[in-house]
Protein: dITP/XTP pyrophosphatase
Organism: Aneurinibacillus soli
Amino acid sequence: MRKKEAFPWESVVLATKNKGKIKEFTRMFSHWNVRVLTMEDDLDFPDVVEDGETFEANARKKAEEIMKATGLAALADDSGLEVAALDGKPGVYSARFAGEHASDADNNAKLVQLMKDVPEAEREARFVSVLALALPGDDIILVRGTCEGRIVLEASGTNGFGYDPYFYLPEKERTMAELAPDEKNAVSHRGVAVRKLTAELAERFA
Ligand SMILES: O=c1nc[nH]c2c1ncn2[C@H]1C[C@H](O)[C@@H](COP(=O)(O)OP(=O)(O)OP(=O)(O)O)O1
Ligand SMILES: [Mg+2]
């Protein structure tokens, strides 16, 4: 059996309302020595306004507010898609690209609309995930993971969430939504960030 990763607290609460993220974190933390709680557990879970201009600012805000409300170590993820031909958009506005209450389908439709006249060779994009782990007290750890790919105009695959069906990974010759959960975690922005967080915790709390 795989050795459990050390975690300095007994529990961690996932400071997110995104079911796709919850699935991915739960899977990645299954070999951590920690109890993972979510908004489904009976916790005080306030709505956090994401008004920061950077992934770091929003991740920090989500983690700190949920840590304060629950009294538990809280892990937040602020993530999104940066498209080169769109000057890095939608970036921190990825969840609200097509409007305040936009669905993944609405956001993807807007992406395809804006990308359809961009030559295929110029469709580079990257996913970014910034994780903030707010520890009880004032301590906070921030890490950033990225994943490079290309935008495609036709959806492929049904795994994952968000922009995954339109995000093609040249080295895998598949979209993110065509990868199995463990394959996604091995290459994704979120997977990269989780491994950085593991290393940081090992260094600080060895
Ligand atoms: O692996 C991913 N695969 C596809 N799309 C992704 C991914 N990671 C982030 N994304 C997109 C979804 C959403 O449009 C935005 C995140 O927005 P973001 O505010 O961080 O998350 P959210 O509002 O869904 O949940 P919450 O803030 O409660 O964590 O980027
Ligand atoms: Mg959000």
Q: What stands out?
A: DSSP finds five helices and seven strands in the chain. The chain has one domain: 11-205.
